[in-house]
């Protein structure tokens, strides 16, 4: 994969000056800034409900609804994130600055989608679905950590250029 000079990362951070300007000017940055914490909040509630179901066997329906809500938010944030990458970096996904975050995101999506598929098809028993969603949630935590790290790097870059 070759990069033009406008795509090269600055030695001090994630964004070139042009990319930073596009990032700061697009409404998709605000959308991501709203959806990411919302998704995390839904994740926390859903994780609580999954664990409660595992311990007590109660609340399967509400747990299932929470997992579906989390998956729908994940799909939405992935679509809007791809738009954000296109605006900022000129490509829909796998921009060099966010390549590994996108790779892990696809793993997170695959696990959530497997849960949804198994739920709809009825081919995966409930106890296995719970383990699938726990794996999905663990991978989501890793992915969220990746993005938080990039947010920190971007902030440090801004401090360094101020």
Task: Write up what this structure looks like.
The chain is built from five helices and no strands. The longest helix has 36 residues, at 126-161. It is elongated, with a radius of gyration of 18 Å. By secondary structure, it is mainly alpha-helical. Mean pLDDT is 90; it is low at 1-12. It starts with 16 loop residues before the first helix and ends with a helix. Helix 2 runs antiparallel to helix 3 (60-89) and helix 2 runs antiparallel to helix 5 (126-161).
Low-confidence stretches: 1-12
- Main structural class: mainly alpha
Helix fraction by DSSP (H/I, runs of at least 4):
over 70%
Q: What would the principal axes of the Cα set say about the shape?
A: elongated
Query: What is the radius of gyration?
Result: 18 Å
Number of strands: 0
Q: pLDDT average, as an integer?
A: 90
Largest sheet report: none
């Amino acid at each position: 994969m070759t990069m033009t000079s406008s795509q090269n990362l600055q030695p001090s951070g994630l964004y070139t000056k042009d990319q930073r300007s596009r990032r700061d000017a697009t409404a998709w940055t605000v959308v991501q800034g709203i959806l990411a914490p919302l998704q995390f909040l839904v994740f926390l509630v859903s994780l609580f409900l999954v664990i409660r179901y595992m311990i007590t066997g109660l609340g399967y329906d509400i747990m299932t609804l929470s997992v579906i809500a989390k998956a729908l938010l994940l799909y939405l944030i992935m679509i809007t994130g791809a738009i954000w990458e296109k605006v900022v970096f000129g490509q829909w996904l796998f921009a060099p600055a966010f390549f590994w975050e996108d790779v892990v995101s696809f793993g997170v999506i695959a696990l959530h989608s497997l849960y949804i598929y198994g739920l709809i098809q009825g081919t995966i028993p409930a106890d296995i679905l719970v383990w699938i969603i726990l794996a999905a949630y663990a991978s989501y935590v890793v992915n969220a950590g990746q993005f938080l790290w990039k947010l920190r790097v971007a902030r440090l870059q801004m401090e360094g250029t101020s």
